[in-house]
Design brief:
Layout: H1 4-7, E1 21-35, H2 42-51, H3 53-56, H4 60-67, E2 72-74, H5 81-93, E3 97-104, E4 107-112, E5 115-116, H6 122-134, E6 139-144
Parallel strand pairs: 1-6
Antiparallel strand pairs: 1-2, 1-3, 1-4, 4-5
Helix pairs in contact: 2-4
């Protein structure tokens, strides 16, 4: 994609249509993985059942069978910062070893007078937002968890 792709959106930052601003949301999501000792002892399975809701809903035997032979188990879903912190603290309390990987889902949208400009092409939308920031457009910053 060329800079010409951005030309049709120049009104967002060139002043020809005043009032456009960028609404930007910082949003990180986390994937947590529980690393097993390899033996899947009854004690380890019991601790896993206290951490992972799906395993806790199973009988001890079914939970044991579900983790038997695995070296790691993903904690279900993508977590926000607060929930990730709670899971990591709980895992530490239970003596479980975990790792967390982050993915940046931050993004923005051009906004004016209660309306959002939706750009379907994700790459183009990112470049338009980058250009708005570089051109000094007002940025309304939000944090998501």
């Amino acid at each position: 994609m060329s800079t010409e792709d951005l030309d049709e959106f120049a009104y967002l930052w060139d002043g020809s249509q005043p009032g456009w601003e960028l609404h930007w949301t910082n949003h990180l999501v986390w994937r947590v993985t529980v690393h097993l000792t390899g033996g899947s002892s009854p004690g380890e399975v019991s601790r896993l059942r206290k951490l992972i809701p799906e395993l806790g809903a199973m009988s001890a035997l079914h939970a044991y069978r579900a983790v038997q032979g695995q070296t790691s188990i993903p904690y279900p879903g993508e977590l926000g910062n607060i929930e990730k912190g709670s899971v990591l603290r709980r895992a530490e309390e239970l003596g479980l070893r975990v790792t967390a990987e982050v993915r940046d889902c931050s993004g923005g949208v051009p906004y004016r007078d209660g309306f959002v400009l939706h750009i379907e092409d994700e790459d183009l939308a990112r470049r338009v937002c980058d250009k708005m920031r570089a051109s000094g457009c007002r940025v309304q910053l939000e944090e998501a968890d």
